[in-house]
Design a protein that fits this description.
mainly beta, 543 residues, five-stranded antiparallel β-sheet
C-alpha cells in the first residue's frame, strides 16, 4: 500500500525522459602564431619558422598551415616553413590556417664584397688621435650600413684603436690598423712620431737694408708642418752673435702658436743670423735660427713683379667703378720664391677709392693676387709693399675710361607728347669724351619698343658717314644694330651721329610709351671691348 501511494504521488507509471545538453560548436582558428616573428639573414642562409594555429581564447588548435612569401625575389618559403634568403631586401612570410593567419618579417642582407679604409694612412704625434672610417660595399657597389666592423692594430705599443676606428698614437714607430667585416678586410699604415716642440721662422728676409722692417713670423710646432696652437708664451728675437744690432719690439706674446714682429729692423750693415727663443711656458720648446741675412745700405732689394692687370667694368652700381685683378710675384735675387709674405697695396696717386677687396694678401709659393673694386675718375698709381722687397709703384688705368665712350639718345625737347598717328625722330649718338683711351671702331646696340603700339623705322646710313650699318630684327619689337668702321667712329671730345629712327604711334595706343637703347659693346680697332653693357631709356606720352 505505501509503495503504491508513493508511486502515485510521484507520477509513477509515466514514460517522460530528460534531453541531453546540445553539443558546443567546434573552435575556429583566430590566428597563427609565427615563431620567430622576425629574422635577419645573409643571402643564401635559411631559417625554419613554426606556425601554431590558435583559437580566440589562445588555445592551440590542430590545423594545417600553409606558407607564402610577399617577395620571392628576396626570400622563399617551402611547405614546412623553411625560409631561404635569395636577395637583399625585406619580405613578409605569411602562415595561414583556415580564417586565421600570422606573419614574420625577414630582412635579407647582401654580403660585404669590399671594405675600404679612409684615409688610407695617418701621421700622428704621440698622444694625438684621429678617426678612420671603413666603407662597406656589396657586389653591385652599393654602400652597406649597419654591419659589424672589427678594428685591430698589429702594434699595440705604437697605436691603439677603438671599436669605432679612432686611432691613438702611443709610441714612436709604425703600425698597421686592420678593419674586418664578414671576412673582408683592409689595412691602413699609421706612422707615430714623438713630439719635437720647437720654433720655426715662417718668414724672414734673405737680405734687407738697415732700418727696413723685417716682418718676421715665428711659429711653434711639433712636427714642422703643424702649428702648436696651445702655445701662448713669449717669443724673443736676438742676434745670434749676441750683438746689439736690432731695434724695435723684440719680444711679443704668441697667439695660437704664432708670433709676429712687424717693426723689428737691423741698425747696421752686415750679415746676421737671428735666434728665436720661447719663454713664459712650461713647454720645452727648442729655439730657431734664421739663415744668414745680408744687410746693406747700398744693396738692391729684390723687386715686386706685377703681372697683367685685368680690368672689368661693373655693369651695375656706381658709375666709374671697375673690378681689378692684380697679380704679384715675390722672388729673391736668385729667383727663389719668397716664403709666405704679406703684400699690401694702397692707392698712392690720383682720385680713386677702393670700394671692396682685401688690400693685404699673403703669398703662396711666392705669388698672390689682389681682387679689388675701385672707383675713380682718372688714372692712378698703386703702391705695393712687402717686407724685404723694394716698394713697387704700379700705374692703374682709370675705372672711368670704361665709361668714357657710350651710346646715347638724341631727340627734340618738343617730342614729349605725341598724338595717335604722329611721329617723332630720335638718333643714336656715340659720345666720346676726353677720358677715352682708344677710339671706337665698332658699336653693337639694340633698340626695343612695344610693337602693338609703336612702329619703328630707321635710316640705313647717316649722310656723310663713312661706316656701314647692319640691322637685324632679333624679336618682335627688338632691333639689333651693328655699326663698323675701318676709321675711328669718333675722335676724342667729338660725338658722332650714327643712326636716325622714326617712331610712329599706332592707332589705339595710349599712355606713356618707352623706348630702350641697350649698348651691347663698343670695340676698338683690334676688337677689344671698350665699354660695358649700358642702357638708356626715353619716354613720351601719347595724346
Amino acid at each position: 500500500m505505501l509503495i503504491a501511494a508513493y508511486s502515485a504521488a510521484c507520477g509513477g507509471g509515466g514514460q517522460d525522459t530528460v534531453a541531453p545538453p546540445p553539443t558546443p560548436p567546434a573552435p575556429t582558428v583566430a590566428q597563427v602564431v609565427v615563431t620567430p616573428s622576425s629574422a635577419t639573414l645573409m643571402v643564401g642562409a635559411a631559417v625554419t619558422l613554426t606556425g601554431q594555429p590558435v583559437a580566440s581564447s589562445g588555445a592551440p588548435l590542430p590545423a594545417t598551415v600553409t606558407w607564402s612569401s610577399s617577395a620571392p625575389a628576396v626570400a622563399t618559403v617551402d611547405a614546412t616553413g623553411r625560409v631561404t634568403a635569395v636577395g637583399s631586401g625585406s619580405a613578409t612570410i605569411t602562415a595561414s590556417a583556415g580564417a586565421g593567419s600570422g606573419t614574420a618579417i625577414i630582412t635579407v642582407l647582401a654580403p660585404v664584397a669590399s671594405l675600404t679604409i679612409s684615409p688610407d694612412s695617418l701621421l700622428l704625434v704621440a698622444g694625438d688621435a684621429a678617426p678612420l672610417t671603413a666603407t662597406l660595399r656589396d657586389a653591385t657597389g652599393a654602400t652597406l650600413s649597419g654591419r659589424a666592423i672589427q678594428w685591430t692594430t698589429d702594434a699595440p705599443t705604437v697605436t691603439s684603436v677603438s671599436a669605432t676606428g679612432v686611432v691613438t698614437g702611443i709610441g714612436n714607430g709604425r703600425a698597421l690598423i686592420i678593419a674586418t667585416s664578414e671576412a673582408r678586410a683592409d689595412t691602413a699604415p699609421v706612422h707615430v712620431i714623438m713630439p719635437n716642440l720647437r720654433l720655426v721662422f715662417d718668414r724672414a728676409p734673405g737680405h734687407t737694408r738697415p732700418g727696413f722692417g723685417l716682418g718676421l713670423i715665428v711659429r711653434a710646432t711639433r712636427t714642422g708642418t703643424d702649428t702648436l696652437k696651445t702655445f701662448t708664451g713669449t717669443v724673443t728675437i736676438q742676434d745670434s752673435s749676441g750683438g746689439n744690432t736690432i731695434f724695435g719690439t723684440a719680444s711679443t706674446t704668441a697667439r695660437d702658436g704664432i708670433a709676429v714682429f712687424d717693426d723689428l729692423a737691423f741698425s747696421a750693415s752686415g750679415t746676421y743670423r737671428l735666434r728665436a727663443t720661447a719663454s713664459g711656458t712650461t713647454m720645452q720648446i727648442a729655439e730657431a735660427l734664421t739663415s744668414p741675412i745680408a744687410v746693406s745700405a747700398t744693396s738692391t732689394l729684390p723687386t715686386i713683379t706685377v703681372g697683367t692687370i685685368e680690368r672689368t667694368a661693373l655693369t651695375t652700381g656706381v658709375l666709374g667703378t671697375s673690378r681689378y685683378r692684380i697679380p704679384v710675384t715675390l722672388r729673391d735675387s736668385t729667383g727663389v720664391a719668397a716664403p709666405p709674405t704679406a703684400v699690401t697695396v694702397r692707392l698712392d696717386r690720383g682720385q680713386g677709392t677702393v670700394r671692396s677687396g682685401a688690400t693685404t694678401v699673403t703669398t703662396v709659393n711666392g705669388t698672390a693676387t689682389f681682387e679689388l673694386v675701385i672707383q675713380g675718375a682718372a688714372g692712378m698709381d698703386a703702391l705695393i709693399t712687402a717686407a724685404g722687397f723694394q716698394p713697387r709703384v704700379q700705374a692703374i688705368a682709370s675705372p672711368l675710361e670704361f665709361w668714357a665712350s657710350y651710346l646715347n639718345h638724341q631727340r627734340s625737347a618738343g617730342d614729349s607728347v605725341i598724338a595717335v598717328g604722329g611721329s617723332l625722330t630720335t638718333s643714336a649718338t656715340l659720345v666720346h669724351s676726353g677720358l677715352a683711351e682708344s677710339p671706337v671702331h665698332a658699336v653693337t646696340y639694340e633698340l626695343s619698343w612695344t610693337p602693338a603700339e609703336l612702329t619703328v623705322s630707321g635710316d640705313s646710313t647717316t649722310t656723310g658717314a663713312s661706316y656701314t650699318i647692319n640691322r637685324t630684327r632679333v624679336a618682335e619689337g627688338v632691333l639689333r644694330v651693328t655699326v663698323a668702321s675701318a676709321e675711328a667712329l669718333a675722335t676724342v671730345g667729338r660725338n658722332q651721329l650714327l643712326h636716325r629712327f622714326t617712331i610712329t604711334v599706332r592707332p589705339g595706343a595710349s599712355g606713356t610709351q618707352q623706348l630702350r637703347m641697350v649698348t651691347l659693346d663698343l670695340r676698338d680697332a683690334n676688337g677689344n671691348v671698350l665699354a660695358p653693357r649700358r642702357s638708356v631709356d626715353f619716354t613720351f606720352r601719347v595724346q
